[in-house]
Amino acid sequence: MEIQFIDCIVSSNEQGSHEWHMDRLGAISASQVSQILTPTGKVSSSIEKLVFKLSAEKAIGIRAETFTSKAMLVGTNTEPEARDRFEVETGETVVETGFIFNTKTSLGCSPDGIIIRGGVPASGLEIKCPMPKTHMEYLSKGMPAIYMPQVQACMAVTGMQEWVFMSYCIGLKPLVFTCSRDDDWIDKLLNECTDITIMINEAADSFSDRPC
């Protein structure tokens, strides 16, 4: 199924592939917005480091290496099972997609799934597959605030009004929570992204040693 969003380029490249990494090259992605804005809407002190990272990628045309821990690898391998469980538990239809880049906001995201209702995209899915003790804490306390920026950023990219957060751990009950769009928070994020995109482009142009 072809997925489309207003002002967006939707890649069909499989998440985790070389092509997917190239799609994300130098782009601000939803998983990075916690380095821009905190869950409470305060500007983060990590913006400068993010600008250096993304401008370097843009300048040299190579994506920065990222460390993948054993726990992260387990989470990635468990994600398909979690997605299937979500469909069974909720009766929803979920389709996968690659990187979604909003050309108007210069912000992108890689959803763990797009929820289809009535033949059209109606919501998104963010899956986390933490270790058992961490998942138990999520079940007890609810969705952690640390994931709010990523979820809201996904809504900012796609224009969705809601996004579903799921925490899944084999042998334990899943946690499923529907997040509503926070327009005030998103407006702050997009204002910051506008300035950050300018800084990324200026730094890449100034310091690149490649011929124009």
TrEMBL record:
UniProt xrefs under SUPFAM superfamilies: Restriction endonuclease-like
Matches recorded under Pfam families: YqaJ
InterPro entries given in the database record: NF-kappa-B_Signaling_Reg, PDDEXK-like_dom_sf, Restrct_endonuc-II-like, YqaJ_viral_recombinase
YqaJ viral recombinase domain span: 19-161
Matches recorded under Gene3D superfamilies: 3.90.320.10
PANTHER family registered for this protein in UniProt: EXONUCLEASE, PHAGE-TYPE/RECB, C-TERMINAL DOMAIN-CONTAINING PROTEIN, EXONUCLEASE, PHAGE-TYPE_RECB, C-TERMINAL DOMAIN-CONTAINING PROTEIN-RELATED
Name the record gives this protein: YqaJ viral recombinase domain-containing protein
UniProt organism field: Solemya elarraichensis gill symbiont
